[in-house]
Amino acid sequence: MANEVTPTAQAARLEATWARPPGWRMFSDVNNSAVGVWYAVAAFSFMMFAGALALIIRAQLAVPDNDLVSATTFNQLFSLHGTVMMFLFAVPVFEAVAIIVLPAMLGARDLPFPRLSAFGFWCFVIGGVFVCGSIFFDAAPDAGWFMYPPLSTEQSGIGADIWLLGLSFIEVASIAAAVELIVGVLKCRAPGMHINLTPLYGWYVLVVGGMILFAFPPLIAGDFLFELERAFDWPFFDVRRGGDPVLWQHLFWIFGHPEVYIIFLPAIALLAMIVPTFAQRPIAGYSWIVLSALGTGFLSFGLWVHHMFTTGLPAISLGFFSAASEAVAIPTGIQIFAFIATVMLGRVVRTVPMLFAIGALAIFIVGGLTGVMVAVAPFDFQVHDTYFIVAHLHYTLIGGMLFPVMAGIWYFYPFVTGRELRKHLGIWSFWLMFTGFNVAFLPMHLTGLLGMPRRVFTYGPERGWDWLNLMSTVGAFVLAAGFLLLVFDCVRPRRAAAPRNPWAAGTLEWLAPLPAPGYGLRAIPEVGSRYPLWDDETLSARIDRGEGLLADAEEGRRETLVTTVLDAKPLQVLRVGGPTWMPALAAAGLGGVFIFATWKLWLLVLVSGAFFLVVLLRWLWTGTAEIPEKETKDIGDGRRLPLHSAGPYSTGWWAMFITLTGDLTAFLSLVFGYFFFWTVHEDFPPSGIDGPGWQWPLASGLLVLGGWAATLAARFANARGAMRRARFLLAVGMLTGAGSIAALLAGPWLAGLDPTAHSYPAIVWALVAWIALHLAVGLLMQGYCIARSIFGRLTPRHDADLWNVTLYWHFTACCTLLTAIVIGGFPEAA
Amino acid sequence: MGQRGTRPLIVTAACLVLVACNPTQSALHPAGDEAAGVAWLFWLMTGVGAAIWLIVIGITVYAVLGRRRPTTEWFADRFILVGGVAFPTVVLAALLVFGLSLLPSWTEDEAPDVRIHVRAEQFWWRVGYELPDGSVIETANEVHLPLGTTEFVLTSPDVIHSFWIPALGGKMDAIPGRTNVLRLTATRPGVYRGVCAEFCGTSHALMAFPVVVLGPEDFAAWLAGEALPASGEADIFIANGCGACHVVRGVSETGSVGPDLTHVASRSTIGAGTLANTAENLRRWIAAPDAVKPGVHMPAFAHLTDAELDALVRFLGGLR
Known about the structure:
The complex is a heterodimer. By secondary structure, chain A is an all-alpha fold. Chain A is 67% helix and 2% strand. In chain A, a hairpin with a 6-residue loop joins strand 1 (559-563) and strand 2. The longest helix of chain A is centred in the N-terminal third of the chain and has 36 residues, at 71-106. The radius of gyration of chain A is 27 Å and the shape is globular. Chain A starts with 6 loop residues before the first helix and ends with a helix. The relative contact order of chain A is 0.10. Among the domains of chain B are: 23-100; 235-317, Cupredoxins -  blue copper proteins (Immunoglobulin-like, Sandwich). The longest helix of chain B has 33 residues, at 33-65. Chain B is elongated. The chains are: A mainly alpha, B alpha+beta.
């Protein structure tokens, strides 16, 4: 086929297949190059909003006894500033940049689940506008960005619910992006891009994606408990009824500390791409950097208690978490020294991205050094909750994230727009930002040591903090001016067109003409080195002639290659989704569920939820596990690859596995809550409250095993061709699964456990509700498979749906059994 | 580069500030053993940290701007190994050993010189002095302690607060449902200031207290005075229902929701370290406490006539 069509005609077909819909319909596009840019623009809009809040904060603190804003407004300002910067800028901008550049870097045409990215983006925008908008109604969260109960549970207004529900909704987007990016790095690399040839950026995305999966779920579990207390008075954090506010602190910081590295590592990843380009040689210590990134990710989960040093912990905990907090400085140091070594090995091209990179280093090292200081518990006792910490965290986040991202924007701007930024404006912008930042934040170290606590809306003139604060305010405005200059440069008219590969970089994303087209490369190359553009001078010309894989879109379908995890051997041609409104509609439906729940409008929650479910099912029914018109397809070099796969070879199975890992983490966080109450109470379960007994949980456990076994048997039966039998088994699975839900609920229900009475019945009910919801989704999945089978969309050969549903049941059955053991068995053992 | 030029300037500026600032709430002007250890540790870590920063940034700037030949792979590997692995491991281990030696090392059976119960409430401090017989003398919003070791027993009935006297040492949270213990050793008599460090609601910024460190004899004398009941023309106080919330021992002991006022006139501030304790400020406070401290639980007594306010302020002013 391929030789019948001229390369020009092939290129035109590729172009047409990946074209963005015209006019307002462009927002139905799902291609990574479109969604990624919207994502980035939205994240930066939220960032500027939060920056404006910060300027009001600084204006209020410029002079003592100021009355520019009231105490209640001020408390909303700083709570929203922290919340927006962390949840609506720092993490999403990583996802945005990764969605834009990752496929091109890996030589893929798109990410494996473009519609999932689009869904995540729309969730992010809807949730973000909801959370930010609250301040215009004097209804913003006002208990600080970590929302410690009981202040936030018992005294905050609607702002606390907006925080909980709005952010839970946005966390869905983060997890969706993490799943997408992990599968992208593992399964969508160009053929030959062995895992140790993967650009460092890909490694960092992998590590950060993994961290999101283990860090966000504890917060989601925490949010779940928190909102149950706010909405239904289940006393998880109320000490009068057996709750404990410190549980929230654990769940929050088990999320919160890895979060810092979730923000930091992707920014370092940008430097890992930028530094070798401008040193014009490969990165030094590639393996060191990969190991350090993994080490940082791992260690970051063992540090959370250093946010809680002053809660009255035993000395042994202080010592352990001090040591772990010091240790994390070592892998961070290795990465920095590897960058410096790379610079030393080459001759540096002096550019604006390098200027921002050096600025980032100068700022971040200060933050790292003060981090080492505050890791020493006795020093932390003094500076905890003071402006010293405010200074420290801004040095790490602005040096470790904002400046590298600025470098990244400068670096990738031509890639996205095909235009160049102006060098002298970049230099001006850098020096304004760098000077402004240091003038604003360096004095804060001292302000804190002189006794100024954080989160104070005013201070007296006799404290002697006035001119330090005035200096910080001036610096903050200079920093803002520098940033706005960069924004102006990005949007001004008459920007010069950028030449191809303007930085003479060595990695694949610079292979295409600029701006990079939606489909990425004209043809997918076979990769044999870490810097293919440097190592193979003819590559560019060959790819332009369409000599490579998947150079055509003969069926008019968007396609990319799936390869093996380690060796990147081609496995499958993956057909990815094209433009559709489904993700945006699904996000609107799910957004309605969270937003209406804020006001306890339960009827609207139900309507919204039903709408979400209908859209979601339609999306799945029409867009996933499609049976192709032919079994295999020539990828351009005579090799024929299948157009369909199921089970562990397919991207969908991996995505399900990864999602369930995150889900399992959330569930284990709830189990952690159960045992946390046991450790803080002498008497738990409390005498006088009867548990659910062991009989009903046992029955539920046995029934769930039945549901699981039936699903597994259905998969085997279907694979053997016994489709009717498979449907019957799935129906049996639905019945036993429903029985399991009923038995699980019957335990605490018949025992008369009142979840508002004490933390014990509350946590039992929380576990039961969590599992019941998961089992209900499991039933829906079984029903979906029966329907797919009846309508001929699930066949013995094309059974991806059934594989994924079986996988879901493996996890859910395990979680149900564990729940049955904990709520039924533990009270007997204790 | 600019950083190199601005550093010494900043250090000079920092020294000037330290001389010029108000030392009563400063962790860098220690008046106790714990604060002194940490202040010393701070200067040490800052010195070493500044040196590390200068070296790393110096190398980077030289590598980028200097006229030099590219180094060899061999050198680069050693550079990463020494700079990124060996050096930080040694320095951090040393810091950890030294830093953790400053952790409080007392045990349960070593009795402190005095034990003070502090109950942090929105947005003030209930302070109780434990006598050797176990009884407690209650006051509020001011902490007096003798030279030597004081144990603070910290609790909270509402939300999380944090008790912090920077000049004496580190802070400790007061958490509902828990009892935390903090020991501080005062070494220099004087008047200092403590604050709430954990965000606790609308007027978190206005939750402070004066700290008076006395010699042991002075402290004993002060405590003996504090133990005495008060007296005075209390009609106005009782008629307006002040006693529903405030205790004035010897006069009205019905309600204790708000701060004890037995010796309020001897305190240097009102509103938990918010206003100087003057007759004028007392009037302002009683008439509209919310205007001084947003979110305060005390209701406004704006309906009182000038004469009534005068009488009330006169009564309170007599509670020495």
